Amino acid sequence: MVQLGTKSTPAYIVALLPHLRAGTSLVESELKEVQELLDVDPPLTAEVLEITRWVADYYAAPWGEVMRAALPAGLNASVEQTIAITEKGGQSIEDSDPDASVRSRVLTLLATEGEMELNALILRMGATRTPKWLREMEAEGLVDRGYRTLSSATRAKRRRAVRLEQNRLTDATDEAAQRNQRTTPAQQRALEVLGQAGGELSVGELVERAWISESVIKTLLKNRLVTEFEEDVRRDPLANANLPQTDSFVLTGAQTTALSSIEDALKADAFAPILLHGVTGSGKTEIYIRAMHRALELNRGAMMLVPEIALTPILSRRLRAHFGDGIAIFHSSLSKGERFDEWSRLRAGEARIVLGTRSAVFAPVKNLGLIIIDEEQDSSYRQEESPFYNARDTAIVRAQKDSAVVVLGSATPSLESFHNAQTGKYKYVQLPDRIANRPLARAETVDMREVFARLKKPPVFSDLLLEAIDTTHSRKEQTIILLNRRGYSSFILCRSCGNSIECPNCDVTLTYHRGDQTLVCHYCNYHQRAPTVCPACGSKYIYYVGEGTEQIEELLRKRFPRLRIGRIDRDTKARRREFERTLLDFGKGEIDLLVGTQMLAKGHDFHNVTLVGVISVDAGLAMPDFRAAERTFQLITQVAGRAGRGDLPGRVLVQTYHPNHYALRHAIAQDYRGFYDEEIRHRRNHGYPPFVALALLLVRQKDEAKAKLIAQQLRNALTEANRDHSCRILGPAPAPFARLRGEYRIQLLVKSPGRKQMRAVIDQALKSFEEKGGDARTVTLEVDPVNMM
Ligand code: ADP
Ligand code: ZN
Ligand code: ZN
Question: How far, in Å, CA of 445 to CA of 153, rounded?
């Protein structure tokens, strides 16, 4: 705890220097006294400290913020100051007049209330900030200041327990009987029960099991037959969960090959990145589980990262069934207390494996030997707020530092990872077939241009999809309806030909600005007037993409009153428990049809789902992001993996105005390689990752003119720092969300074939921007941005 300004703030000790290094100059006034040490054991292990340091450097984030992200939420985060009366203070009450001065009123108050929160006391006394008299009282030793953490959730939960005296462990009752004839039958019972329980029980359990009152225990304590202690109570997130059977399959040939290459790498005890490319349902999870068992056998710990939403309750149960208490789970719907306890079990080495989302990359796993990143292409590995870091890339670096094996698993690897496998940076392992040769779902596009031409009004559902929902239900099978959008509708799409309008320079969709009726590229700031007819086919049916999940649910309820319909989207995601319940209910077959956004496409394994309908896939294709095609390809491929997981064949219907788009064509054909070859060409031609490093600078300002000015200053600074032209600088241009929460947002994009040069230019530019009076707080820097939205 360190005093910064008027506030006490938790701080981190990152190193101890017994001597100052020669030549270090210190400004006395900049030194801070440590007020109090909050932890006895350092919460961050050396390995974790090192990786937080790397993240801070690489992503240009404040180190303290990264360390905070690495610790369980709430740990030391909210500390309040307390004030209590001292012995000296207590004595001085007696000889003072009870209602004379503020000072004696304070002392009387503290004497009756005990320790109080400092702010509460100040308020009670009618002051607004720490008054002078209080500081004087402190100086005189009448009162004492302290600190306490606000949320007890981030402390171990404890309970009272008793233990048989050491020398009585063997034959407690006999000995008690011999040595102490005065034990009552109730005391006898208590000692007996304790003996049977191995000598230790919590007070509560002992009372219950031995049918005694607490006073009996008090007597035993007094007679020194038992001793009292406090024990930690574990808050177990899966305490009452039903665990599934752990099947022991015979691995398929492909699985065996894949597993043995992971094993070989584990035995080699060196850094090894492996890309495990397996279609959905090819048995990747089974390999993860066995690989983690191997790591444990080699006395090494393991980490499994899953995307935000794929961390289903189902997967945690499957892993708990395998690893019991050996696995700690950082589940997104854990309470703070549960999260803290799971983290503590890792820190203490009681659990050797962690399963979790993004921030679990910082988990204190002992002797880490294996990291698994499932669905490595998933954008939720990227934290979209400061510190902006990518857990996948951080995990790879952590594996490198810890000489661990890292397995990147996916049915649709990111372009970057597949490229790394192509160039030999990653070892490539493939699972080409589904288990038991279950066929992949049959995917087909439904051409909405035809439907539109027939109906003459914009349809939400095609007849084909409606009929399919009906037949699926009549066979007692389940349906998923997927809406591919993120509440983003500011672009133009033609209903007659399916075209959206792209920037001639940047290969991304232009964004529609309603105010001045223009189309703008938010990478390079290219402008043009919004057309009234489609520039490609002349049709006047151009439109802005529409419906949300709620409306879709409404429409479906009207159309199919007998279906039990559930919905999952961003809103319900905020209510975690409800979200989890809906998924479990769907898994149990208590919901017939589930409507949701792309998060439904990931990771779940529902055996009775035989139909997936994707509506408004075009919204995803036209997203003003250079990864729009890749995302759409991944989505459709994954969705095809959702249907027909069990023995039933699956069907996927993709409604689109753009059935010839290459991302859709390859996705329908389940042709990853074909898509990769086409997409990588675009990336090379237009200069996008993996061929260049990318950084995004975002200016946020309440005042529009100021925002523009700052962005221009930043641009000038960048141009100046880029004298050797090692970077390409794009913008300033309005961000895709040009106004958000009352702030104007303008962005600049920096591209460079060399990551080092790029950082050098940006660092130099930011420095000179600040030196010229620019306010660095209005600028956020994102290195390797994932979502260009
Ligand atoms: P993925 O993670 O690639 O989607 P899973 O590991 O979940 O695939 O496997 C898909 C299904 O096949 C699961 O129900 C799993 O229990 C089962 N499975 C996995 N491996 C085998 C095997 N060797 N033999 C039989 N069934 C298997
Ligand atoms: Zn058109
Ligand atoms: Zn452009």
Answer: 51
287 Cα–ligand 1 center, Å:
9
Residue 446 to residue 252: CA distance in whole angstroms? 36
The ligand whose atoms approach the alpha carbon of 528 most closely is 3
Q: What local confidence, expressed as pLDDT, does residue 11 receive?
A: 85
Nearest residue (CA) to ligand 1, atom 5: 283
Residue 285: CB within 6 Å of ligand 1?
yes
**What's the residue count for the chain?**
789
Residue 555: how many other CB atoms lie within 10 Å? 14
- Ligand 2 centroid–CA 704 distance in Å is 35
**Over 760-779, what HEC string results?**
HHHHHHHHHHHHCCCCHHHE
266: nearest Cα among 308, 315, 226, 300: 300
Query: What's the Cα-to-Cα distance from 428 to each of 257, 281, 420, 681, rounded to whole Å?
Result: 12, 18, 9, 21
pLDDT, tens digit (0-9, with 9 covering 90-100), for 353-365 = 999 999 999 999 9
Taking the CA atoms of the chain, what radius of gyration do you get in angstroms? Answer: 32
> Which ligand 1 atom minimizes the distance to the CA of 278?
3
Ligand 3 centroid from CA 527, angstroms: 9
Q: Measured between alpha carbons, how far is 532 from 597 in angstroms, rounded to an integer? A: 30
Q: 542 CB contacts (<8 Å, ≥6 apart)?
A: 492, 493, 494, 495, 531, 532, 533, 534
The strand pairing partners of 730, in sequence order, are 749
pLDDT of 747 reads 92
Stretch (H or E) spanning 181: none
Ligand having the closest approach to the CA of 492: 2
What is the distance between the alpha carbons of residues 166 and 718, in angstroms, rounded to a whole number?
73
In tens, the pLDDT along 459-506 reads: 788 999 999 999 999 999 999 998 866 544 567 778 788 778 888 887
Burial of 590 (0-12, 13-18, 19+ CB in 10 A): exposed
Q: Which ligand is nearest to the CA of 526?
A: 3
The number of beta carbons lying within 10 Å of the beta carbon of residue 352 is 25
Whether the upstream peptide bond of residue 690 has omega within 30° of 0, thus cis, is yes
Q: 369 CB less than 6 Å from ligand 1?
A: no
Tell me, what amino acid is at 219? T
By most ligand atoms within 8 Å of CB, the mutation choice from 259, 285, 647 for ligand 1 is 285
- Integer angstrom CA distances of residue 657 from 629, 668, 788: 15, 15, 24
Least confident of 60-64, 212-216, 709-713, 722-726: 212-216
Long-range contacts of residues 659-664, Cβ cutoff 8 Å, at least 24 apart:
659/445, 659/447, 659/498, 660/498, 661/498, 661/621, 661/629, 661/632, 662/629, 663/621, 663/629, 663/630, 663/632, 663/633, 663/636, 664/445, 664/617, 664/621, 664/632, 664/633, 664/636
Return d(Cα 484, Cα 789) in angstroms, integer: 15
Residue 479 near residue 688 (C-beta atoms within 8 A)? no
| Measured distance CA(343)–CA(349) in Å, rounded | 10
Check if 374 has its Cβ closer than 6 Å to any atom of ligand 1.
Answer: no
Q: Residue 17: is it exposed, middle or buried by C-beta count within 10 angstroms (0-12/13-18/19+)? A: exposed
Q: Which of 174, 149, 172 is nearest to 162 (CA)?
A: 172
Could you say which DSSP state residue 167 is in?
A: G
CB of 255 closer than 6 A to ligand 1?
A: yes
- Tokens representing 424? 């030999």
pTM: 0.78
Å from CA of 280 to ligand 1 middle? 9
Q: Give me 527's structure tokens.
A: 């402008």
* Distance from residue 508's CA to the centre of ligand 3 (Å): 7
Which atom of ligand 1 lies nearest, measured to the CA of 287? Answer: 6
Q: Is 410 in the pocket of ligand 1 (CB under 6 A)?
A: no
